[in-house]
Every structure is written in structure tokens, then in C-alpha cells.
Amino acid sequence: MPSLMPLAARRVFCLCASAALVTTLVACSKAEAPQEPLRSVKLLTVAGSDLNLGGEYAAEVRARVESRLGFRVGGKLLQRPAEPGQRVAAGQLLALVDAQDFQLAAQAAQAQVSAAQSQRDLAAAEFKRFEALKVQNFISGAELERREASLKAADAALNQAKAQAQAQGNQAGYARLTASHAGVITAVEAEVGQVVSAGQPVVRLAHDGPRDAVFAVSESAIMAIKMGQSMQATVLSTGQTVQGTVREMAASADPVTRTYAVKLALAPGVALPLGASLNVRAPGASGSAVSAIKLPTSALRQEGQGTAVWVLDEATMTVNSQAVQLGQVDGNEVVISSGLQPGQKVVSAGVHVLSPGQKVTVYSPDGKAPASAPAASSPR
Q1: Which of 36, 64, 179, 260 has the fewest C-beta atoms under 10 angstroms from its C-beta?
Q2: Sign of the torsion angle spanned by Cα atoms 157, 158, 163, 168
Q3: Are 40 and 198 in contact (CB under 8 A)?
């Protein structure tokens, strides 16, 4: 009897395991995947609308010409009398570098001039003496020609030495940085004791004269601005109104901000301090309005590193994700620069509770499904 107990226990264990397996299989066969809820969504039909390209832009008063001045030679900066905001006259000293080496080189070049002058005088005296001997037929004509060639070589060496001395003298003079025009120092970019290289900017000088109002606009707004167009600007500090005309527009967008710089030439006689803040009013020119696709911000959602919207497939009544590129903001709406075509139907609300391929119904305030989605550029 004891020898039969292990066998019976094994049989009982096998029966229990088989029953548990059958129960699991039955339970799995009865489980069904939960169906996603059929959501009701608000739709709008994508359509082009006129984009108001006018508006106000923050501008800054700048000099028409602003130079970044630097030394034509390198050296250690000994003095920099110029300070930001200082008014300077043409020819006024702005900075000074150590010119000792240039002065020594100039002295050496001057010594070369003296040596070349002595050689030239000697060659001239010999040529004069040999010329007298030739008159008396004591020497041949070839000998006189050799003395003449020596004189010409001495003349050339003297001219070369003088040119080198002049160049070295100029180098010593370049150690002084002076103002090229009358104006205002707007910035300094080097300090006393610093070793600067040739051409390195040391100070910025805003020249006296005409002033510009500089501001940035978006890619869509730049299309409505024309060269020579008149605009009005308001000085924020005083409320003064000034007139100007567009004189320059950037040919390419700024690589960081993706905006275009516009320079507005202020009317002659307008005396405004550099850096003054203005509000430039840039109304859209007649006939310059463009058609653009605009969506409310509620229709946009973040997808990865970009922006996307839900587009309705009317054949299956499902929604699919569509990536879009955004333009400028126009009130509570955003301009869609690419990604959508007129006639497509886009979900305008509740975009964060949907998933790709999900079936939806069109929301209706009275509870009845409309025959088609409303055709509008934005929901009311």
C-alpha cells in the first residue's frame, strides 16, 4: 500500500494541471479586445483666406553707416581713450598700440636710404670722371657705358630704399587709430593691455548723418513690403510720429530667427537718439493680400519634433495624422505654410483624445449627424 501512494499523487497532480489548462484556454477564448469609443468631433473644411499682412513692428534707430574700426597693424593696446556713447570728431585719437618695433624698423629703413644715397653719389662721381676721360679718348666707350649702368643701378637702389623707408614710416603711423568720420562710439571690443591683430575690430563708430529704423518681419509679411514704400513710425518715449520710406530689405532670412530685416529711412531732419525704440506701422499695400490657410490653435497638436493635425477620411470616417509647417500667428489662428490642401476636413477640437485610424462621427449641436462637415475656415 505505501508503494502505491506516489503514483496516486502523480495522477492527482496531472488531473489538476489539465483542469487548470482547460480553464485557462476557455477563458482566453472568451476574452474580446475592447472597442475604442466612437467619438464625436468638430470639423472644419480647409480653405484659403486673405491674410492681413499689415501690422506694427518694433524697430530700433540706427545710423545709416556704422563702421567697425581696427588697426592696420598688430600689437599691444596701450591706450583706448574712446568710450561707449562718446561723441568724436574726424581725426580724433581712438586707440594706440605699442609702436616701438615699427619705429625701430623705420630707423633701420632710413639708414638704408642713407647708405643707398652714398652709393648713388659715388656712382655719379665716377660716371662724371669717366665721362671726362672719354672726351679725352683715355677710355673706351664700353667702359663709360659700364659706369653709366652702375649709376642707374645705384639710382634704382636709392629709390627702393626710399620706398621701404616710406612703408616702414606708414607702419609706425598705423599704430594710431583715429576716427574716420565724426560720430558716436557705440561699442568697444578691445581693452588696454590686450594684444590685437591687424584688422581686429576695436571700436564701433556710428557716423553722423541719416538715420534708419531697423525692424524684422516674417516671410509672409516681406511679400507685401515694397522698396520706396512710405511708412509711419511712433517714438515710444515721446509719442512723436515720424515718416520714413523703405530703402533696404534683406535678400535672405536670418538663419536663427528666420525673419527678414527691413531698413526704413527716416525723413531728413528727424533727430532721434541712437537705439531709440519705435513702433513702425506697416499697412498692407493695395492688392498685396495673399491667400493663406489658417487654423485655430485648438486644431494643432505636438507630434515628435513637429506639429500635426487630424484629417478626416470621409470614405471610412476615420482620422489620420498629417504633419504641417506653421507660419505666422494671426490673432487666435496660425497660418499653415505647408501640409494641407483646400477642401480637406480637419478636426478642430479634442485632438488629444484621438488615435490614428479611430472612427469618429461629426458633432452636431442638436444631436443629429449632419450630411457633411461644415465648410468654414475656422469654427465659431
Answers
A1: 36
A2: positive
A3: no
Both 158 and 267 in a single domain?
no
pLDDT at 169 over 70: yes
- pLDDT, one tens digit per residue, over 71-93 is 999 999 999 999 999 999 999 99
pLDDT exceeds cutoff 70 at 37: no
How many CB atoms are closer than 10 A to CB 35?
A: 7
- Alpha-carbon distance of 149 to 125, in angstroms, equals 13
Mean pLDDT score, 170-177: 90
pLDDT of 264 reads 93
| CA atoms in the 13 A half-sphere facing the CB of 336 | 26
Hunting for cell 603711423 — which residue is that?
A: 173
Residue type, 331: G
Spatial separation of the C-alpha atoms in residues 102 and 73, rounded to whole Å: 10
Name the pLDDT band for 15 (thresholds 50, 70, 90): low
The values of phi and psi at residue 281, to 5°, are -95, 120
Q: Based on the domain organization, do 112 and 72 belong to the same domain? A: no
Q: Starting at the edge strand that comes first in sequence, how are the strands of the sheet with 201-207 ordered?
A: 66-70, 201-207, 183-188, 87-88
Arithmetic mean of pLDDT over the chain: 82
The half-sphere exposure of 194 on its side-chain side, counting CA atoms within 13 A, is: 14
Tell me, rounded to whole angstroms, the distance of Cα 90 from its chain centroid: 32
Contact yes or no for 248/263 (Cβ under 8 A) = yes
Amino acid at 296: P
Do 76 and 199 belong to one domain?
yes
Q: What's the pLDDT at 376?
A: 40
Three-class secondary structure of residue 36 per DSSP:
coil
- Residue 91: which domain range? 66-98+175-206
Tell me the average pLDDT across 235-242: 88
Instruction: Name the band, by pLDDT with cuts 50, 70 and 90, for residue 51.
Output: low
Around 125, how many Cα atoms within 13 Å sit in the side-chain half-sphere?
Answer: 6
Element spanning 94, H or E: strand 93-97
3-state SS record for 111-161? HHHHHHHHHHHHHHHHHHHHHHHHHCCCCCHHHHHHHHHHHHHHHHHHHHH
Q: How far apart are CA 267 and CA 262, in angstroms?
A: 16
Shared-domain flag, residues 190 and 200: yes
- 163 found inside a domain: yes
Task: Provide the pLDDT for residue 90.
Answer: 94
Which amino acid does the sequence have at 34? P
This prediction has a pTM of 0.53
